[in-house]
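Subject: design request, 353 residues
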């Protein structure tokens, strides 16, 4: 876990389900580098569906940020923009309640990124623990794309453009919000006025979902995902391959729940927590086999994904509708972000024309 800034990790940190979260501006989004999956669903998509009813929520399809490590393969991003929009709508995000917009269709975001980049040093970017970790994971060495190194600045532009108060993130993203708030304070100091708003993290109650083999997180880039349109067969195969307790060799033996991916998924997705608690107790005392627990999880995931898959298939077949949703939301986002850009340009004294 990265170091968490004091001003973001204590009393200012909100959590999902808080009754205090009402009528606030929320900014969230996803890079358009592939279909979304169960990790996205439990970590953020389900939360977004709930938040949209009582908040002003903007969701950004981050195609420009998707290019930061796919500049030599831009089709990977372009081909997945509508896939991501379809995933949003299929899980229940309502474009009448949530603004769904395309990052590259909002010129103010790129311009804000340019202004902010003059206030952040290379050394500060390289100290960002999230960036450092991802650079190591992608084996960039010193061949780091400039866009990748500076994407915390781009994220700051996204957040501030919509004056977001809350940003749903995992705890690994807290350093990104710390850097955003540093930029906010610098801009406000230049303007001698509070023209930008500092943001707070909205942490999910669910930690990152592990891959079925339990060796890493579920990740598009690692190819170990269960997508939101997975077939019943694909779900069954993924669950059968899940890591359990290697020492649980016979049904009558006591089994370990900790680190057992099947129970991690049951905790995350099964609607009956009391039933899952009974299963855990049974497994730990012995008498419950892995085959039985895996079948329970298979049934649970198939029930969850079946209606999402059906809605998604219908949406993908109507690309015109997906484009219209994205176009309408992007036009709305342009207007809102331009207001912030005008204030920032004034702070820099660039408001002559």
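Subject: RE: design request

Done. Sequence follows.
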């Amino acid at each position: 876990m990265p170091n968490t800034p004091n001003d973001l990790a204590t009393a200012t940190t909100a959590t999902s389900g808080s009754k205090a979260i009402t009528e606030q501006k929320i900014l969230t989004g996803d890079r358009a580098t592939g279909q979304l999956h169960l990790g996205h669903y439990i970590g953020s998509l389900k939360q977004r569906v709930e938040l949209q009813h009582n908040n002003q929520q903007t969701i950004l399809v981050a195609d420009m940020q998707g290019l930061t490590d796919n500049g030599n393969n831009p089709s990977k991003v372009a081909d997945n923009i509508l896939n991501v929009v379809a995933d949003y709508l299929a899980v229940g995000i309502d474009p009448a309640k949530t603004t769904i917009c395309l990052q590259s269709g909002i010129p103010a975001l790129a311009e804000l990124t340019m202004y902010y980049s003059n206030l952040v040093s290379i050394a500060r970017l390289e100290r960002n623990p999230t960036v450092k970790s991802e650079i190591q994971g992608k084996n960039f060495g010193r061949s780091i794309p400039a866009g990748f190194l500076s994407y915390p600045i781009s994220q700051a532009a996204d957040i501030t453009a919509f004056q977001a108060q809350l940003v749903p993130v995992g705890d690994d993203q807290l350093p990104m919000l710390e850097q955003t708030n540093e930029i906010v304070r610098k801009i406000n100091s230049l303007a001698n006025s509070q023209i930008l708003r500092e943001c707070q993290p909205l942490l999910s109650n669910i930690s990152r979902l592990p891959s079925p083999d339990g060796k890493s997180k579920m990740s598009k880039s690692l190819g170990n995902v269960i997508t939101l349109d997975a077939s019943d067969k694909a779900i069954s195969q993924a669950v059968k391959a899940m890591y359990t307790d290697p020492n649980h060799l016979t049904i009558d033996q006591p089994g370990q729940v900790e680190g057992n991916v099947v129970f991690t998924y049951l905790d995350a997705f099964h609607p009956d927590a009391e039933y899952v608690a009974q299963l855990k107790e049974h497994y730990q005392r012995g008498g419950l086999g892995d085959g039985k627990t895996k079948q329970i999880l298979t049934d649970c995931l198939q029930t969850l994904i079946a209606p999402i898959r059906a809605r998604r298939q219908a949406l993908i077949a109507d690309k015109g509708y997906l484009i219209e949703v994205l176009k309408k939301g992007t036009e709305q986002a342009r207007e809102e972000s331009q207001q912030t850009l005008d204030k920032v340009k004034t702070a820099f004294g660039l408001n002559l024309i």
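The chain is about 50% helix and 10% strand.
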